[in-house]
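>> Question from a student workshop board

For tomorrow's exercise we were told to take the sequence and the ligand below, predict the bound structure, and bring the output to class. My setup keeps failing. Could a helper post the expected result so I can at least see what it should look like? The ligand is nicotinamide-adenine-dinucleotide.
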Amino acid sequence: MKILVTGGLGFIGTNFVKMLLGKYKDYKIVVLDKLTYAANKIMLNEFKNFSNFKFIKGDIANYEFLEKVFRKEKFDYVINFAAETSVDKSFTFQNEFVSSNVLGVVNLAMLCLKYKVKRLHQVSTDEVYGDLELDSKKKFKEDSPFNPKNPYALSKAQAEEYLLMFHKLNGLNVTISRSTNNFGMYQASDKLIPLVINRALNKMEVPVYGDGKNVRDWIFVLDHCKALDLILFNGKDGEVYNIGADEFHSNINLVKFILKKLKRSEKLIEFVKDRKVNDKKYALDFSKITNELGYRKDYDFEYALDLTIDYYKSR
Ligand SMILES: NC(=O)c1ccc[n+]([C@@H]2O[C@H](COP(=O)([O-])OP(=O)(O)OC[C@H]3O[C@@H](n4cnc5c(N)ncnc54)[C@H](O)[C@@H]3O)[C@@H](O)[C@H]2O)c1
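>> Workshop helper replied:
Here is what the output should look like for this input. Compare the format with yours to find the bug.
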């Protein structure tokens, strides 16, 4: 069995590859990554110790290069994490988001069809649904309409539409997952939780957008990886699965909680001008993956946050 993990050196990809290497010792794991600022290049030193691991540097938006890889390697499964993921950056560099997040995915779909890959799994996001009012009790279901509010979310929604079209018209075996906000080890330092931990440790101001009341559902990255493993190998062809954690925290409460854990004063908090658009709240109904694939999260939120803090402290 040979699995291609695109974007496998990013935050979630790194955790997923670590899980695969530990769990499926007889599978060949090929990571293809462009090595952007978000990639954990240092992890190559650890992964290279596994004889079933191979790394290829490259861009999924480059079809000719990608085809050479597919022709040579003959993958059984492909899981795509590769993407530009910074919402802030997406307001300015829209072209990079279309290139990696849309064209790259179309390239993968074309090649998975051509080389008869058993399954392409696309790692997507709850941001495709847009947001909810802060006091809303509603949760998005897999058939809720798309309503992306920023160029990152738009690019992820477009990729999904292409994939479902490939499934309907060409019979591509595809699955899609939409997860809520992840936290954990190996995340780039511009994202909220590592940013807060690192700045607080260094007694620097901790920036919070707007009034900080925006609510996110936080899933520990290893629970997300567990769900992806289930979907990749047991999910149903052409299906979409929400992945949530029911751990709702406003940004400001989360920041205060981390500061308390690090024994730092709330005076470090500095409210900064909000994004052009900043989704108010995300909430997912993830009963489908729970009922159909038996998904249950393993990690308690506070315990996982402690693990995360310990990780960033040790770096
Ligand atoms: N982080 C979250 O909270 C979250 C939540 C839901 C969904 N997602 C999705 O999960 C996936 C992974 O997210 P992440 O937070 O690990 O991202 P990340 O930014 O940490 O990592 C992305 C990785 O993809 C690589 N990459 C980018 N463009 C590429 C290209 N064109 N070709 C090859 N490699 C490329 C980068 O070098 C990096 O290693 C993304 O598709 C994202 O949309 C993330």
